[in-house]
Known about the structure:
With 60 residues, the chain is mainly α. Helix content is 63%, strand content 0%. The longest helix has 20 residues, at 37-56. Keywords: Membrane, Transmembrane, Transmembrane helix.
Amino acid sequence: MRNFNTGKAPTMVVWVISLVLFIVAVVAQFGVVRIxxxxxxxxxxxxxxxxxxxxxxxxx
Length: 60
């Protein structure tokens, strides 16, 4: 069985954290749940930045 986490792909934990931040941002953007503005904006920034860093740093 092949181990698919040997490359530069983000680990499952980083991927799930980024997914949760993305869902928070989308829910706030469409007004499904009222989330204060700094948290909604920063969830986009942190989620995307975390994925970018995780793709470049092995084992993150």
